[in-house]
Amino acid sequence: MNLDFNQIVPYIPFILEGIWVTLQFVIISIIFGFILGTGLALCKISKIKALNWFGDAYTSIFRGTPLILQLMIIYFAIPQLTGYDISPFLSAILAFGLNSSAYVSEIIRAGIQAVDKGQTEAAQALGVPYRLMMKDIILPQALKNILPALMNEFITLTKESAIVSTIGYLDLMRRAQVVGADIYRNFEPLIFVGFIYWLLVMVLTIIGKIVERRMKFSD
Using an 8 Å Cβ cutoff, are 5 and 179 in contact? Predict the structure, then answer.
C-alpha cells in the first residue's frame, strides 16, 4: 500500500489548530440554538395559535431542508440580496444555530410535556407566574430528562461541522484538504482528521455521561 504518514508530520500543528477553530463556532452555535430552540418550544406549547403555527412552520423549514443548503443560502445568496458579505465564521454560526434550534425545540417541547402535569397545576394553584413557573419548576425538570438527547445533538453538530469546509472556513476538514492538495496525498490527512473527530466525539460522550450521572444523583 502506498501510504506514508510521515509526510503529514510537518503539517500536524496546522491541522491541530483546526480543533479550536471547529469547536469555537460549534459551541457558539449550540448555545444560540439552545436559546432559540427553548423559545420555539415555548411557542409550540403556547395557547396562542399564531405562536404554535410559527414554531411548527420554522421547524418544518429547517428540518425539511439540507443543512448545507441553508449554509449556502446564508453565505452566497443573502449577500446577493443585501449587498453585504457575510464571513464564513458568522455564516457557520447562523446556519448551524438556526438548524440546531429546530431540533432542540422538539427535544425541549417533548421534555416539557413529559413533566408531570401536577407540577403545573400546583404552581398555578399557588399563583406562580407562567415565566417563573417555566424557569424555576418545569424547565429544570425537563432538562434532566432531555440531557442525553441534547448531548446527542451537540455531537451531531460537531460531526456535521465538517461541511463548513465548502465555504472555505479553515476548520479541521478544510485543513485536511489543504494539506492533501499541498502534498498530493489525501488519504493520510483525511484519516488523521477523522481520528481527531472520533476523539472529539468520544470526549463529548464521556462528558455527557458524567453530567447525566451527576444530575441523577442530585435528585
Answer: no
Cα gap 80→31, rounded to integer Å: 28
Summarised one tens digit per residue, pLDDT across range 154-180 is 899 999 999 999 998 999 999 999 999
Nearest to 205, CA basis, from 118, 165, 147? 147
The answer to whether 162 and 120 have CB atoms below 8 angstroms apart is no
First CA to last CA distance, the chain: 55
Calpha distance 99→77 (Å, rounded):
17
Walk me through the domains of the chain, giving residue ranges and CATH numbers. 10-217 (1.10.3720.10)
CA distance 146 to 152: 10
Smallest Cα–Cα separation from 93: which of 23, 40, 194, 12? 23
Helix/strand/coil percent split, the chain, to 5: 85, 0, 15
- Mean pLDDT across the stretch 198-214? 87
Q: How far is CA 86 from the centre of its chain?
A: 20
Q: pLDDT of 107-165, one tens digit each? A: 988 888 887 777 777 777 878 787 778 777 778 778 878 888 888 888 999 999 999 99
Any idea which residue has 440554538 for its cell? Answer: 33
Ramachandran class of 185: left when φ > 0, alpha when ψ lies in -120 to 50, beta otherwise: beta
